[in-house]
């Protein structure tokens, strides 16, 4: 279906180039397959981890909110307002590192807690301890969340990377390689065909030459016969004059015939020599 | 499919869209940033907050390149589900957390949705 061949002129050079390309494609296919396998393995191990972390996170946050409610109960509703209003510069930030998995860059988050300020401002008398508790709990939730975020980002990035790699792998396996293969076999068969054609052509040429030579030979024979006839006719005139000369001439004619036989042999062997010469030439050419 | 190369950075922030208690709790950790009121990295959503405001904040936060993680309550996420589902960037990443007094529903979480499909496929 997709194994249409490439549009190339069948020649030995093209065949060599195609073979090189096929080799390259096969190598690329192997490498990409390995990459895809490595990514998939990492991905699989990540799936369960994410599911676990999500569940844990949901429990953890519930706990955190409970702790905050306790703090609120002690300090009163003013706390919420106070906290929201007092926000200024963030003391907790995120550090993003990059991890490399099989050539795929995956961002990894890490929390930086610069707790030099902020916490002291919220010491509201007796509720201080409760607030501190809630803060601790939320910080631990946040660190859990950051891990989850790292996993989540890695999940999405890997998912993308795997899809991309698989697409390439499939393209190589199902489109590029079959196409190259059919093209190579096409070029091969075409070259064979050319060779056969060439051989047949040479044979035909030598056959034609043979026929030509035979014709030439026959014509020569004909001419010779005519000549003989004329000579005989001439002899006929001379017969009356001298009978002895005829017998001598006849002997001469027999000798000539023998010569002609030798000529025939020469012509017969000639085309074969030609053919073998052609074949020699052919080997030299290719 | 975005073709961004991730560079290591150190000055990224959280962002949070949530109900009053959740936001307060996370602000206690010192992740809040409100040097400019219009540019703060948190939004308290209550009955008075309009849907439009939530959507706008979501847009603003997702297009802020200083933000790495957006934390959002699931009940609020449900109101802007169409935005979250069509959200394609990897950074900032959106994390849904359970809302107060509500059980976390794993089936609506967009990452979990994908995950569950794959886990099923594996089996």
Automatic annotation (TrEMBL), chain A:
State where composition is biased (Basic and acidic residues): 222-232, 241-250
Spell out the residue ranges making up region: Disordered: 222-273
Keywords recorded for this protein, A-Z = Ion transport, Transport
Q: Which Pfam families match?
A: ATP-synt_D
- The Acidic residues compositionally biased stretches are 251-273
Q: Which domain of life is it from?
A: Eukaryota
Q: Which PANTHER family match?
A: V-TYPE ATP SYNTHASE SUBUNIT D
Per the record, the similarity remark reads: Belongs to the V-ATPase D subunit family.
Q: Which HAMAP family match?
A: ATP_synth_D_arch (MF_00271)
Q: What is this protein called?
A: V-type atp synthase subunit d
Organism listed in the record: Anaeramoeba flamelloides
UniProtKB/TrEMBL annotation, chain B:
Which GO CC annotations does the UniProt entry carry? proton-transporting V-type ATPase, V1 domain
Instruction: Supply the Gene3D superfamilies for this chain.
Output: ATPase, V1 complex, subunit F
Q: Has keyword Electron transport?
A: no
Q: In the record, what terms sit under GO molecular function? A: proton-transporting ATPase activity, rotational mechanism
Note the InterPro entries from the entry: ATPase_V1-cplx_f_g_su, ATPase_V1-cplx_fsu_euk, ATPase_V1_fsu_sf
- Kindly indicate where the leader peptide sits in this chain: none
Q: Sorted alphabetically, which keywords does the UniProt record give?
A: Hydrogen ion transport, Ion transport, Transport
**PANTHER family for this protein:** V-TYPE PROTON ATPASE SUBUNIT F (PTHR13861:SF2), VACUOLAR ATP SYNTHASE SUBUNIT F (PTHR13861)
Q: What job does the chain carry out? A: Subunit of the V1 complex of vacuolar(H+)-ATPase (V-ATPase), a multisubunit enzyme composed of a peripheral complex (V1) that hydrolyzes ATP and a membrane integral complex (V0) that translocates protons. V-ATPase is responsible for acidifying and maintaining the pH of intracellular compartments.
Q: Hey, which family's this protein in?
A: Belongs to the V-ATPase F subunit family.
Q: Self-association or partners: how does it assemble?
A: V-ATPase is a heteromultimeric enzyme made up of two complexes: the ATP-hydrolytic V1 complex and the proton translocation V0 complex.
Protein name per UniProt: V-type proton ATPase subunit F
């Amino acid at each position: 279906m997709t194994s249409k061949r490439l549009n190339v002129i069948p020649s030995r050079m093209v065949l060599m180039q195609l073979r090189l390309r096929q080799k390259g494609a096969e190598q690329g296919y192997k490498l990409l397959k390995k990459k895809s396998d490595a990514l998939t393995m990492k991905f699989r191990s990540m799936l369960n981890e994410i599911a676990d972390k999500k569940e844990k996170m949901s429990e953890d946050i519930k706990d955190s909110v409970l702790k905050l409610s306790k703090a609120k109960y002690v300090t009163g509703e003013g706390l919420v307002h106070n906290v929201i209003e007092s926000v200024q510069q963030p003391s907790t930030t995120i550090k993003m590192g990059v991890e490399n998995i099989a050539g795929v860059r995956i961002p990894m988050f890490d929390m930086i807690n610069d707790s030099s300020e902020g916490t002291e401002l919220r010491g509201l008398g007796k509720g201080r301890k409760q607030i501190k508790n809630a803060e601790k709990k939320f910080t631990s939730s946040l660190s859990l969340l950051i891990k989850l975020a790292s996993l989540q980002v890695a999940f999405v990035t890997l998912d993308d990377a795997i899809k991309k790699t698989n697409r390439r792998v499939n393209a190589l396996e199902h489109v590029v390689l079959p196409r190259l293969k059919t093209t190579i076999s096409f070029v091969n068969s075409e070259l064979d065909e050319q060779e056969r054609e060439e051989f047949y052509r040479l044979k035909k040429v030598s056959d034609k030459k043979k026929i030509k030579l035979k014709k030439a030979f026959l014509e020569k024979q004909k001419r010779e016969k005519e000549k003989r006839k004329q000579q005989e006719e001439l002899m006929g005139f001379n017969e009356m004059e001298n009978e002895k000369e005829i017998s001598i001439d006849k002997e001469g004619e027999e000798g000539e015939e023998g010569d002609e036989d030798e000529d025939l042999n020469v012509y017969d062997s000639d085309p074969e020599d030609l053919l073998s010469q052609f074949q020699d030439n052919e080997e030299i050419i290719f | 499919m975005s073709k961004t190369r991730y560079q290591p950075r150190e000055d990224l922030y959280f962002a949070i869209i949530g109900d009053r208690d959740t936001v307060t709790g996370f602000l206690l950790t010192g992740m809040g940033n409100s040097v400019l009121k219009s540019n703060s990295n948190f939004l308290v959503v209550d009955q008075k907050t309009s849907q439009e405001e939530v959507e706008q904040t979501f847009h603003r936060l997702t297009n802020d390149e200083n933000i790495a993680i957006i934390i959002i309550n699931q009940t609020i996420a449900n109101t802007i589900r169409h935005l979250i589902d069509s959200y394609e960037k990897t950074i900032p990443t959106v994390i849904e957390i359970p809302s107060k007094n509500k059980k976390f529903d794993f089936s609506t979480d967009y990452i979990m949705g994908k995950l569950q499909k794959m886990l099923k496929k594996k089996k």
